[in-house]
Amino acid sequence: MFLRNCWYVAGWSHHFPSDRLLARTMLGEPIVLYRKADGGIVALEDRCCHRLAPLSKGRVEGGDLRCMYHGLKFAPSGQCVEIPGQSFVPPRARVRAYPAVERDCWVWLWMGDPAIADTALIPRALNHGDPDWWMQTGELAYDANYQLINDNLLDLAHLSYVHENTLGRNSMSWAESNPTVTPIPRGLRIARWVVNNPSPRYLTVPGGASHVDMWASYDYMVPGIFLLGTRTYPVGTAAARAMQAPDPHAEPLTATTTSQAVTPIDELHTIYYYSGCLPRRLAGEEDSQQQLALFERAFAEDNAMIKAQQRVIAQTREPRMLWIRADHALNRFRRLMDELMAAESGEAAAYPAPLPLVAADG
Questions:
Q1: Does 128 fall in a domain?
Q2: Pseudo-torsion of CA 36, 39, 44, 46, nearest 10°?
Q3: Number of folded domains in the chain?
Q4: Is the peptide bond before 54 cis (omega within 30 degrees of 0)?
Q5: Which of 74, 170, 191, 340 has CA 20 to 30 A from 354's CA?
Q6: Residue 255, beta-bridge partner list
Q7: Phi, psi of 292 (to 5 degrees)
Q8: pLDDT by residue (tens digit) across 239-286?
């Protein structure tokens, strides 16, 4: 099942040059995207209403898209405006058009009812395109259901294990930290101190400190948008703050942000977009490149684990998952998604879904 009345990332802005059609599959639906002459993004059903040929094999003509099988031409609204060989164009000659918005270096599509598409519901990425920050981007394909990737991002305790030699830095600090989970509109805010953690390898920490206290806070938004900011301080800062949020006016030793988006291709395939951003006042371009290289290694570790997990689920007759305390956030987010999907379909929420989940004692 998918939540449709929300915005999904269809790709990075640089994926959409002015001279090329781009085919995408999102939520099981074939879509073609292109830029009009004014640079605006158009997203249409990638299926001509005549003989079901893919419009992604067509040709852009101004703001319109011509099917190159029999020449039908479609306006950005999806309405056919020309049929070669006949003057009459029936009103039902049209394809579906998807509301599309370009914001924060991402292209977003509304996959549900276009009449209720609300751009105010687009989560704002962190520091994308900000001239005061270095920015690197990437994407990764998963052969797995999107909810498994959401689960992974909602429980960062796995950094101490899956990413033992990368993001985890050979430390149990992530696994042993206790986050606070706070509901926000259409999402959750998850924050924690990671105390006495090894310093980031790709950054030069002022004073050369080998360990730091890290404040990590992120919003996880419907349908799978991860917005994380981290700041590091001298060891002892977390205790001095009584494990509360750091002083917003205190200059950190280092700071990073990353914005990530989980977009289902279909039930068993997902595309994952991610960024790495560093403030120019605290880091250099080489630091930014090293950060991306570390992310690529770490996210490949996630990919291997989650693909293996998906295979085990497929081989298990009645798959059930045991919940532990670290699953609090993903539990709440699954419930939120289930409630929104139920409201969308007019049915009662049937949580837990799609896998039965069993709570552990304690």
A1: no
A2: 80
A3: 3
A4: no
A5: 191
A6: 231
A7: -60, -40
A8: 999 999 999 999 999 999 999 999 999 999 999 999 999 999 999 999
Residue at 126 is within a domain: no
51 vs 42: CA distance, rounded Å: 21
Q: Which domain covers residue 60, as residue numbers?
A: 7-121
DSSP per-residue string spanning 31-59: EEEEE-TTS-EEEEESS-TTT---GGGSE
Q: Is the bond preceding residue 354 a cis peptide, omega within 30 degrees?
A: yes
Going through 143-206 in order, the beta strands assigned E by DSSP cover 180-184, 187-198
Q: What is the DSSP string of 318-350?
A: S--EEE-GGGHHHHHHHHHHHHHHHHHHTS---
Cα separations in angstroms, 258 against 35, 43, 144, 171: 27, 27, 22, 21
- In this structure, what token pair is assigned to residue 34? 């292109």
pLDDT tens digits for range 147-174: 999 999 999 999 999 999 999 888 998 9
The H or E element containing residue 153 is helix 146-154
d(CA 140, CA 274): 8
Residue in this structure with the two tokens 């939520």, named with its chain if needed: 27
- In this structure, the answer to whether residues 351 and 235 fall within a common structural domain is no
Residues 6+ apart with CB under 8 A from 340: 3, 5, 6, 186, 222
For the record, the structure tokens of 279 come out as 């403030």
Rounded Cα distance between 36 and 317, Å, is 49
Computed on alpha carbons and rounded to an integer, the radius of gyration of the chain in Å comes to 23
> Distance between CA atoms of 234 and 214, rounded to whole angstroms?
9
pTM exceeds cut of 0.85: yes
pLDDT of residue 16: 96
